[in-house]
Amino acid sequence: MTGFLIKLVVCPIIVILAYLIFPNVDYANLWQAIVVGLVLAIGAHLMELFLLKETTMALSTIMDFVAAVIIVYVVSAFFPTAEVTFFGAILTAVLLTLTEIPQHSYLIKSGKTRKSPA
Fold it and tell me: 14 burial class (0-12, 13-18, 19+ CB within 10 angstroms)?
């Protein structure tokens, strides 16, 4: 749950930051960037639940990057006034991935990724 709460804050902030610094990430309204960030937070959290373990940190981080590119590009396309190029989605995903690395390390070191036997 801690990871999800962190993502609910961090992901929208990163998408807003990408919107502010990258010319190929353009949202007509701030709420559009926030919605994309919230969808990213939900997707990243679900991926952590299924993938993140001590032995899969690299794989989980790579998959987070790939999913972030797809989510940013596809979800942004639902807003007729938003313009996000594929390269803009990649740049946004790079920023998101840079925040995922310390989050994954924290979750693994704190033992919050241990799965209980079913």
Answer: buried
pLDDT tens sequence across 49-62: 887 777 777 888 89
Between the alpha carbon of residue 20 and those of residues 25, 27, 105, 112, the distances in Å are 8, 9, 28, 33
Specify whether the CB–CB gap between 91 and 68 falls below 8 A.
no
Strand partners, 84: 25
One-letter amino acid for residue 55 of the chain: T
Task: Say if CB 26 and CB 82 are below 8 A apart.
Answer: yes
Domain boundaries, the chain: 2-109
pLDDT, the chain, mean: 88
